[in-house]
Amino acid sequence: MPATDSSSSSSPAHHTSFGRSILSLRHRDQIHHAFPPTPDHSHSTSSIDDREIDAFQRHAADLLLDLLPSSTDPSAAPEILSLHWTRHLLDSFLICLEEFRSVLFADAAALARAPLDRLLADFFDRAVKALDLCNALRDGLDLLRQWRKHLAIAAAALAPSRAGAGPLGEGQIRRARKALTDLTILMLDDKDAGGGQRNRSFGRAPKDGQGRGHHRRSSSGSGSGSGSGSHFRSLSWSVSRSWSASRQLQAIGGNLPVPRPHDVASTGGLASAVYTMGAVLFVTAWALVAAIPCQDRGLQAHFTVPRSGGFPWAGPVTALYDRVLEESKKKERKHSCGLLKEVHQIERCSRQLMEVTDAAQFPLDDDKEAKVQEAAHELVQVCETLKDGLDPLERQVREMFHRIVRTRTEILDCLSRPNTTE
Questions:
Q1: DSSP line for 10-33
Q2: Exposure of 64 by Cβ count < 10 A (0-12 exposed, 13-18 middle, 19+ buried)?
Q3: Neighbouring C-alpha atoms within 13 Å toward the C-beta of 367
Q4: What is the average per-residue pLDDT within 93-119?
Q5: What is the pLDDT of residue 122?
Q6: Most exposed of 13, 30, 75, 268 (fewest Cβ within 10 Å)?
């Protein structure tokens, strides 16, 4: 994968460190009545490493549980698959990855010993697959920015007239319908997008001062296009035409090796930590692909956690997987470009405005005027949400990319040194 071959040297110089917070983590007496904590069967002679690994797994369970709506306090967690929730998901992943790194380096000498070396190699093979996903997700966020521009045009055209200027005029409605028609073309075009040339990666800095969007002009091979929709489709994606988010997810989560009791014992529990991080990586990548427009974003990848494993995060991760899958099966979301709440709002508001203003007589009657203003108000709200949320979300996706690269590089360096010590 060209986007990931050279990325190990591109990690930023400074990274936010969450520290080894799990060493001082005070667990809840009960995570949730639906997912009670697994009983602690460890003996009083357990080592600090055992307790640290147990804390890591229970903290992962807490973080995943916080992403689920609570039956007692529905407002406690952000609305699932909203921009706010997606940022919360990435925060949880980054915390887990940092604590996973701390757990591994607590006993660095064990990393090169079998079977842990094999389990780590398998995990990082899967993690590398997530790097291309990060690049494709950034393209999806760029796509949302393009959609927002058309929304903003429509919202501005339908803005309330000056005091005493009267109801909305035919010119305003036509401008809004033109913007929404262009938006609809882009959204429909994206569903059939085949992708373009690979030309961007979080692991590569722009050359010669070229900023975002330069490749849209320079890589087309033509100064003109057949229309805004086809032009955007042919230049938008930074992955090849044959690349598939669905296949990438299957590679990340398919046949995730469940640690055998012997492996858990021989690695001092580190095998369980590797499996935990593999599960968190998959469910995070899967939910991101579900939410954000992405090339071939099928959600067919299947994932299960063995009930007999005694993993405290098994209940929350399964519930999260099922909850997102349930959203994808809703009638109004089946053919959507993405399950993100804001994408659904864009589709619904645009459709409502087009229906209300179709073959309208001017001036609009009071009922239609009220419906148009209500939909326009929601358009403004969606525009503001996208404006405030897309850049921070992209920074988090970029951080996910670099944290994976950094962790993998550090572990490989550790494994390559003889007589590994911390």
A1: ---S------SGGGG----S-S-T
A2: buried
A3: 3
A4: 93
A5: 95
A6: 13
